[in-house]
Design goal:
Layout: H1 4-7, H2 20-32, H3 35-38, E1 43-45, E2 51-53, H4 54-57, E3 77-79, E4 82-84, H5 92-97, E5 102-110, E6 122-133, H6 140-159, E7 164-172, E8 175-185, E9 188-198, H7 200-205, E10 212-220, H8 221-229, H9 242-245, E11 264-272, H10 278-289, E12 293-303, E13 310-318, H11 327-341, E14 346-348
Parallel strand pairs: 1-5
Antiparallel strand pairs: 2-4, 3-4, 5-6, 6-10, 7-8, 8-9, 9-10, 11-13, 11-14, 12-13
This protein binds adenosine-5'-[phenylalaninyl-phosphate] and magnesium ion.
The site of magnesium ion has 3 residues, from strand 9.
Amino acid sequence: MIPPNIEEKIGARLLYKPGPLRLIKKKIEDYFSNYHNVGQAFAIMGSDDPYVSVQANFDDLLIPEDHPSRAETDTFYKDAKTVLRTHTSAHQIELINGGHLHFLTFGDCYRKDTVDSSHYPVFHQVEGVCLHPKHEWDTPEKAEKHLKTTLEGLVKHIFGPSIQIKWSTDYFPFTNPSWEMEICLDDRWLEILGCGIIHPDILKRCGADEYYTGWAFGIGLERLAMILYQIPDIRLFWTKDERFLSQFADGDAVFQPYSKHPPVYKDISFWIEDAYHENDFHAIVRNIGGDLIEEVKLIDNFTHPKHGKTNHTYRITYRSMDRSLTNEEINLLQDQIRKQTLQLPVGLR
Ligand code: FA5
Ligand code: MG
């Protein structure tokens, strides 16, 4: 079941409308269409429908049955066989199977994540895949070097040559080895992508393992745009406020904050049981409060010394991007949140 606040975002096509995401998409396409940057021009493949099979999103990518990302607490299931894609990697196999050797594919992705200024249940990724004849990349280091140089070049193309870059090892079932890249702006490091050398079993499924080896990456576009344009809150990508949209109508700009409407804070406290998942609570708040939710923060977490029960207190920050909120309307939402939270394995206080 897909909640209405998510369903209404499907088909928004933010990548194709004037705004910061389209600008970032264009920069990435420019870089990868230049033979000199990457050794070959990358094709840009469409993947407009965000509904994909469980097979494509998980099974094909060697993601084990019991992997937490498959849980209903993390992924939006339409039915037992169909999900809203959690990453653009869901299209790797179909595109490699279609005979494409170097390609990018952009798309909206969906996850039940925590709620804060850099996480949102709908966001955009670009997947990049590059296959190369095995006899030329005859050591793993050659593929790794090409991958890392390509991505460092991309980040410099977008942010300029002095951007600080940090590589760390990461883990994905479909690449081995795997890395993540963080970049730094104003003393703040932010993870922008995951990548790695494509697992040979993936290539085997496409009948490509005998001749090819290759790499793949997935980048979060909002993260890039937030750093480049100094956009402080990921919800702004969804605003219809002209004061935001007009700033990016003619191309690159540094975001000029306009006056923010005041926040309303509400706290909620409950005892949690073992089966409680924080994501379920976040999802309830998000479903009821929609884009009025700025943040959900655990402000108190204590375990009672006698009976051993754990209490969580969350502070919910409500703020509209477009107007002032009244206490009455927020109380109504907060009441609904309290009622629905009681369906979770918790005891309200
Ligand atoms: C992946 O999604 C892998 N599919 C990436 C990959 C592709 C690895 C190909 C290897 C080969 P990860 O979950 O780390 O990895 O997400 C990648 C990026 O998406 C993150 O670095 C971040 O920039 C962005 N992202 C993830 N979740 C959110 C979210 N809730 N809101 C905004 N951006 C997000
Ligand atoms: Mg990651």
